Amino acid sequence: MKLAAYYWERIKRQRPAMFGLGFIIFLIILATLGTYFTKSPTKVNFDEKNLPPPGYTVEHSMYSAQNESFITTLQEGTWEHPLGTDSMGRDMLAQLVSGARVSLLVGLLATGIAIIIGAVIGVTSAYFGGAMDDILMRTTDVMMTFPFLLLLILIMYLFGASLTLIILAIGLTGWTGTARLVRSETLSLRTREFIMASKALGAGDLRIIFRHLLPNTLSSIIVLATLSIPGAILAEAVLSFIGLGDPTVASWGNILNAGQGSLETAWWVAVEPGVMLFLTVLSFNFLGDGLREAFDPKGE
Amino acid sequence: MENSAVLSVDHLQTCFFTKKGKVMAVDDVSFDLLKGEILCIVGESGSGKTVTALSILRLIDHPGRITGGKIMFGKKNLLELTIRELQDIRGNRISMIFQDPHSSLNPVFTTGDQISEAITAHRSVSRKEADARAIELLELVGIPIPEERFHEYPHQFSGGMKQRATIAMALACAPDILIADEPTTALDLTIQAQMLDLFSELRKKFNMSIIYITHDLGVVSEIADHVAVMYAGRIMEKGCRDDILKNPKHPYTKGLIDCLPSEKGKPASIPGTIPNLINPPEGCIFHPRCRFAMEICRLRRPMPSKTNNEHYVSCFLYGDI
User: Measured between CB atoms, does A211 come within 8 Å of chain B?
Assistant: First the structure.
């Protein structure tokens, strides 16, 4: 595709976008292949709990029943656990890699669901207009005003927390922005002559929607999708952080939650997933902005 | 030229139901389109030419609706077909091209892609055959190096080239009728002359009938076989080209011809503007602007009367009242 090559040239010129893209690719490789090289993220080992990353030393106090007093030992990080361990001796690197998998899964799938629902609702609403438009857009308004976190908490409370449910819940509540955007783009496209022309050539509604309307809104959809992935990732992290996440998987939110209590003694447990979240969200935002810049016909 | 009508529009009426009231955009329009002829529909902006054309393919969108009449295509009344049957005719038997070539093509697909699509929409041919046919069509409408142009996007085409490409799309299934809605208005004059030649040539090649909508009497004089003059949604006068241009009967047609610059001096203009169609004037719709308006013009609506062979005029100055 010549068009793809053209946009690639334009994205390449933007450093932040390229940084974002690089980090996202790194993250994808980490999430897919990383688990083959790391230890088990769930293996508990109390002999090695709260180990710092290599190069750091922390004081470790333990009550000894034998001596009836606290014994303070110095613990030094080892290369065995390059990012340290948490309070149950689980390897942090392994947990972060597994968390990357969870975060990407949530980010991509939830956004995918939201984008598909939003695009279908937006395009139907604008293309058919009339009563259809009113019904769909008022539904969107109601969805938009509904407190999203409360709804998620309610769903988690009612049905219990599982990763599938979290993905579905975020996806099924996050489509409103897409619906609005696609609707407004379709409204302006609908009056363009090529839509009338393809009707005059015998195209049916489905062909017009899928061949003409959606491909022409695709650049906006891609930008919006890239920018809403961090929202979905953060939503999962927030849910996990407040204890409503899936307890069976090691997600960044879960690790953060576990690490917040021991910030003074084992700062790395909370800081490491925090940094990963920060970089991931930043990367998707950089990439999204870069894409928007590249797709903007006025940007030349 | 055979003397049989491929399309006959009979008492067509199309209304737009706006918030301010009902607008009769096309009111009691009748005409026949003969096999292999070019029929020009002429009129000012807002006279209902485009709405007439869109009504033929039933492309009128909400809030408009065709409220009466018949459109006979062969033995079928287009107004009674289901949407499926209609889609089978659109682009296949009757095609249409539009005024602005710059927005008539989808910007995100290659031009060739879109022509192939027009073929595969109606014919069960393989992608390869459709592509080959599309390249033939591009060549037919006069696009140089069609094999390369096939892979280019619309923005890489000039205005004239785009219009040629839309014509190629419209011709994809060798339709019986081509409706061209001011296809040269957005193009410059030299291209316009080339396009008119192209239409005449294609008409001969495919033995196809063309409805050509224009406001330009110069274009009419070059390509028309028959002419229908529209004003405010009604046909004022219709007949062969020479009758209309050289021997116009209706005061409105005369006015239009007087508007053309000539050696006689400053071109005249018709005083006033097209009436508000929500509250159209009673009687003859042209009477407020007519130099020859009589008492009866304010009261009754003139019916078309035959002045001579094939020449009809809707005016009380002619025929019996």
Answer: yes
Domain CATH code at residue B10? 3.40.50.300
Alpha-carbon distance B141 to B197, whole Å? 11
Enumerate helices (H) and strands (E) in chain A, giving the number of each.
12, 2
Give yes or no for a contact between A276 and A99, defined as CB atoms under 8 angstroms apart.
yes
Q: Residue A216: its chain B contacts at CB < 8 A?
A: 106-108
pLDDT digits (tens, 9 = 90+) for A273-288: 899 999 999 999 999 9
- Across the interface, of A194, A200, A207, the residue whose CB is closest to B103 is A194
Query: Rounded distance, CA B199 to CA B212, Å?
Result: 10
In a shared domain, residues A147 and A110: yes
How many independent structural domains does chain A possess? 2
Name the minimum distance, in Å, from the CA of A193 to any CA of chain B. Answer: 5
Q: Is A190 exposed, middle or buried (0-12, 13-18, 19+ CB in 10 A)?
A: middle
B97–chain A Cβ distance below 8 A for any pair: yes
Report the C-alpha gap between B40 and B26 in whole angstroms: 16
pLDDT of residue B147: 92
DSSP letter string over A243-299?
A: T-S-TTS--HHHHHHHHGGGTTT-HHHHHHHHHHHHHHHHHHHHHHHHHHHHH-GGG
Contacts of A218 in chain B (CB under 8 A): 108
Q: Which domain holds residue A117?
A: 2-50+85-299
Are A72 and A122 found together in one domain? Answer: no
Alpha-carbon torsion B106, B108, B112, B113, what sign?
negative
Q: Would you call A101 helix, strand, or coil by DSSP?
A: helix
Encode pLDDT of A109-154 as tens digits.
Answer: 999 999 999 999 999 999 988 899 999 999 999 988 888 778 878 8
Please state the pTM of the whole predicted model. 0.79
> Do both A60 and A205 map to the same domain?
no
ipTM of the modeled complex: 0.82
**Number of domains chain B contains:** 1
| Domain match, A198 and A118 both | yes
Which amino acid, residue B111? T
**B-chain residue closest to A130, CA distance:** B62
Report the Cα–Cα distance between both ends of chain A, in Å, rounded: 20
Residue B2 pLDDT grade (very low, low, confident, very high; cuts 50, 70, 90)? very low
Closest-CA distance of chain B to residue A216, Å: 6
Query: Per residue in A261-276, pLDDT tens?
Result: 777 778 888 888 899 9
Helix, strand, or coil here: B210? Answer: strand
Residue B123 lies in a domain: no
d(CA A58, CA A48): 13
Task: Indicate whether A178 pLDDT > 90.
Answer: yes
